[in-house]
Amino acid sequence: MTTDAEFEAAIAALQSWVGRERVVEDEIGLSSARRIAGMLDIDPATLKQGDALPPHWFTMFFPDIAKQSDIGPDGHPNKGVFLPPIPLPRRMGAGRRVTIDGALRIGQPATKRAIVAGIVPKFGRTGRMAVLTMRLVIETGGKTIAVDEFDAMYREAPKPGQASPQTPPVKAPDNASFADEVLLSSALVFRYSSVTWNAHRIHYDADYARDEEGYPATVQNGGLTMQLLLDAALKRASGRLAGFTARLARPLWVGDTVTLCGAAPVDGKMACWAADKDGNLCATMDLTLA
Question: Which residues contact 235 (CB under 8 A, 6 or more apart)?
Fold first, then answer.
């Protein structure tokens, strides 16, 4: 067991990673777009070569494709393959800040520039943590169409037999102008993990999620929560999605129902949130509409 000072020194030693950049290419294929559409309950046949995609769909392209021998015991690529080797075993998405200036087009090649923007140690009620911030710059047709700053939270593993510590519950707001209930079925979560090439075992391996990471069940993918919340909001919004900020507050469990809520747009802004089956706040999102 290292001391807090040794942990901070280990994080400081990783600062050479900050500023590192790699490029991921994607052809934005028709078959990929149609698989995403089907997963979101949209008729895949409505998508054709050359069509512009919904602006926020860029988050489901440009996967990091690791060799099987580079996959770790949690299903993620091993530390140091794509991301800094942060000395904590558990990683989950925490939040993001996104600006959008255009859209991907089916059949038009595009790139993602993935830049390590920051690595910060933290000490909280649940123990040692580190926040990795990645800046993702999406480019196609000679222009930048989106910039996504994404935070991932790294945490200590629970002791054997110990439950994973959770943030105390906070009730979701009760002033929603819309509320859509969505079943987080295992098939839906599996299909999202498939289209995003995400093999994190907490999303499909119940024994691993319980025995190794201390969760009561398989864990809903936070990226899917954000996708569903955006989709629900944009059904009620007017104008173009120019950006959003999002924060995950509490885990959701595969097999449960999530309620996707939001307030009416005001002056180009729209506040949204997600609540679990007990009415607890699980995610917040603020949309900017142009």
Answer: none
For residue range 21-39, list pLDDT tens digits in order: 999 999 999 999 999 999 9
User: Contact, 113 vs 23, CB < 8 A?
Assistant: yes
Tens digit of pLDDT for each residue in 162-184? 667 677 899 999 999 999 999 99
Number of domains in the chain: 2
E strand segments, the chain: 21-26, 90-100, 110-124, 127-140, 143-155, 178-183, 241-248, 257-262, 269-275, 281-289
Q: Report the C-alpha gap between 83 and 114 in whole angstroms.
A: 10
- Domain span including residue 204: 167-290
Instruction: Report the pLDDT value the prediction gives residue 160, as an integer from 0 to 100.
Output: 66
Copy the structure tokens of residue 92: 């989950």
The model's pTM is 0.90
My answer on whether 22 and 73 are in the same domain is: yes
